[in-house]
Specification:
Layout: H1 13-30, H2 34-40, H3 47-53, E1 62-63, E2 66-67, H4 71-84, H5 86-106, H6 109-121, E3 126-129, E4 145-149, E5 152-163, E6 170-177, E7 185-191, E8 197-198, E9 213-224, H7 236-270, E10 272-273, E11 276-277, H8 282-310, H9 316-340, H10 352-364, H11 369-381
Parallel strand pairs: 3-6, 4-6
Antiparallel strand pairs: 1-2, 4-5, 5-9, 6-7, 8-9, 10-11
Bound molecules: 3-thiaglutaryl-CoA (TGC) and flavin-adenine dinucleotide.
Length: about 375
């Protein structure tokens, strides 16, 4: 596996073990039939429970049965899962970074005790409802409302493009609390079998096909006050969760790109034209050299981010830079790998075109490439372009 400047030589034994476990899981459980799942638009059945059993959900948190592994170990896990498919990494990062993290960081003791153990094992599945039909890049303009009525809240509105909503047991829904001054955004734990909740599946995707995506309709949904995440108010609630998930995506994109590189390298050694392996021609070598260089520089960035996160010096803007750079890199390299495979490259027999299609989603969700450009632009100039 490409690790050109031997970054993995510095891993400790736990980090190696987690990397190897995830790599083996992808080889045994994902690679054999991910092409079929992608073609059929299905998520492998039983996989959430299997991933839970292996400890793939939020292992970087500690307590409630979670081991508190290093941020490097967590990143390597995301990298290996996305080498299998972005949809598999997405399932793990939504469950861990977007559902367990807000409960862990902002929830009451009762909420933590109720949800973290079963989300951690995959016995329960969660989803994260921020995006709305009319508000994607600008979630602060959300229209979903929560109105206090005695000791209940009544939620109404709709969320869309929600990973796993049709299969989720619980949704972390972000809504404006109209009973408080200035209607701040608050997080609400909404069980999806509640009266008034609907979770239609979105079927027409040409990207991220091995991942379930849906809507969340909220029609006067009454939930008890105890279901509000008590310890956060305002946009920093959902945005803090995004920072956790974007960190995992920056690592994951390296895995997808590495898988494209390894597939193209193997193909270039085997495939002969004009009497020799195509890998012997200078143009193909140039492509491999460029891919290896781009992947290596992206690897360096995420390893540095892990160190900053570990010592508490990681800023959201650092994560924006890595998400923006690494996903663009993976999107570009997937296309180059695809072209190196010639006609065979357009089939689901090989991974690059699947990764390439997935990268269109990854480039768009968790803040589009443009939005991360503007976040960096604001950080570098002190002037916000999007206000
Ligand atoms: P702004 O006024 O800048 O900030 C509001 C408060 O939040 C704080 N903050 C952050 N905190 C943690 N992490 C971040 N990344 C943060 N960004 C801002 C900020 O300090 C402030 O705190 P305070 O204490 O002063 O109140 O907020 P804004 O509304 O103007 O934000 C602008 C913008 C464009 C950066 C933000 O809206 C944005 O990131 N938009 C992109 C939307 C997005 O990424 N949506 C993702 C939806 S979830 C998803 O796609 C899941 S896919 C997952 C999968 O399947 O893997
Ligand atoms: P828009 O915001 O409408 O953007 C359209 C275009 O305009 C983009 O190119 C964008 O970069 C550009 N643009 C927008 N504003 C500006 C600006 N100020 N300056 C310059 N250009 C701008 N959301 C969730 O809440 N939970 C999930 O689990 C989830 N999962 C997803 C899974 C999939 C498969 C997909 C595709 C999306 C998912 N999303 C999820 C939604 C995702 O986060 C949004 O699609 C994303 O934030 C972009 O919003 P939008 O699609 O409404 O695009």
């Amino acid at each position: 596996m490409l690790d050109y400047v031997a970054l993995e030589a510095d891993l400790d034994s736990e980090e190696r073990m987690i990397r190897d476990t995830a790599r083996e899981f992808v080889d045994d459980r994902i690679r054999p039939d991910i092409g079929t799942h992608f073609e059929e638009g299905t998520f492998p059945e039983g996989l959430m429970a299997e991933m839970g059993e292996l400890g793939f959900f939020a292992p970087n948190l500690e307590g409630y049965g979670l081991p508190g592994v290093s941020e490097t170990a967590y990143g390597l896990l995301m990298q290996e899962l996305e080498a299998g498919d972005s949809g598999i990494r997405s399932a793990a990062s939504v469950q861990g970074a977007l559902v367990m993290y807000p409960i862990y960081a902002f929830g009451s003791d009762e909420q933590k005790e109720e949800w973290l153990p079963k989300l951690g094992t995959g016995e329960a599945v969660g989803c994260f409802g921020l995006t709305e039909p009319e508000h994607g890049s600008d979630p602060a303009s959300m229209e979903t409302r929560a109105e206090k009525d005695g000791d209940e809240y009544v939620l109404s509105g709709s969320k869309t493009w929600i990973t796993n909503s049709p299969v989720a047991d619980v949704a972390v829904v972000w809504a404006r609390d109209t009973s408080a001054d200035e209607s701040p955004v608050r997080g609400f734990l909404v069980e999806t079998d509640h009266d008034g909740v609907s979770t239609n599946k979105i079927d027409e995707k040409l990207s991220m096909r091995a991942s379930i995506t849906g809507e969340i309709g909220l029609s006067d949904v009454r939930i008890p006050e105890e279901n509000v995440l008590p310890n956060v108010s305002g946009m920093k609630g959902p945005l803090s969760c995004l920072t956790q998930a974007r960190y995992g995506i920056a690592w994951g994109a390296v895995g997808a790109a590495r898988d494209c590189f390894e597939t193209a390298r193997a193909y270039a050694s085997d495939r002969e034209q004009f009497g020799k392996p195509i890998g012997g021609f200078q143009i193909q070598q140039q492509k491999l050299a460029e891919m290896a260089t781009q992947i290596t520089t992206s690897q360096l960035l995420v390893h540095r981010l892990a160190d900053l996160k570990e010592r508490g010096d990681l800023r959201p803007q650092h994560v924006s830079m890595a998400k923006r750079n690494n996903v663009r890199m993976a999107r570009d390299q997937a296309r180059i790998a695809r072209e190196m495979l010639g006609g065979n490259g357009i089939t689901t027999d090989y991974s690059p075109m699947r990764h390439m299609a997935n990268m269109e989603t990854v480039y768009t969700y968790e803040g589009t490439h443009d939005i991360h450009t503007l976040i960096l632009g604001q950080d570098l100039t002190g002037i916000a372009a999007f206000e």
